[in-house]
Amino acid sequence: MTDHGRELHLAAAARAPREAVYDLLADAGTHLDWAGGQQPRYFRLLSLDAPDGRLIAGATFSSTGSIPGSGRRFDDRSRVTVAERPSVFEFVTEATVPGRLPMRATFRHRYELEVNGDGCRVRYTFRQEDLVDPMLRLSLPIVRDVSWKVGMPMMMLTGLRNLVRVAEAQAARPLVLDQTG
User: What structural domains does the chain harbor?
Assistant: First the structure.
């Protein structure tokens, strides 16, 4: 079974400049915090392998993560497709859930950052571009629809709020000047 073209749109306001949010997105090392440790155990990043420094268009990284209601894990390979500081960060993920009949999927994650007063508005789009041999729950129409309308927005909104919270905390830190010079 193959399933195409589902999309989820979420947004959050941040009391931080869009550069602060963008810099977290482009620093894959931070993802294990706001999309890992701060997420519920049943839906979080567990590992991440990425280049040091800021991710740019064309950069690749890999990750593993937990799947709600399952002992199985996802295994992802991602590529940054758009990196336009401070306004847009996007990556495409080729995901596999190993098993007798592995599920394979392609997801596009797009973050658009707009000035909003003293902070910014973060618009997140999650698009399923392809899904082959889905896990049982994603192949049953009613369960799949409930997952897309309730479960996935709830879990992904938690991650988006974590991202915003970390950006706000970093933006609120006072600048310390080195005067030993």
Answer: 2-172 (3.30.530.20)
DSSP 8-state secondary structure symbol assigned to residue 68: T
Q: pTM of the entire structure?
A: 0.91
Per-residue pLDDT of the chain (181 residues; tens, 9 = 90+): 456 579 999 999 999 999 999 999 999 999 999 999 999 998 999 999 999 999 999 999 999 999 887 888 999 999 999 999 999 999 999 999 998 899 999 999 999 999 999 999 999 999 999 999 988 777 888 888 888 899 889 999 999 999 999 999 999 877 666 666 5
Helical residues (DSSP H) of the chain, grouped into ranges: 18-26, 31-32, 136-139, 141-146, 152-172
Q: Is 71 helix (H, G, I), strand (E, B) or coil?
A: coil
The answer to whether 25 and 80 have CB atoms below 8 angstroms apart is: no
| Whole-angstrom distance, CA of residue 104 vs CA of residue 100 | 12
d(CA 98, CA 101): 7
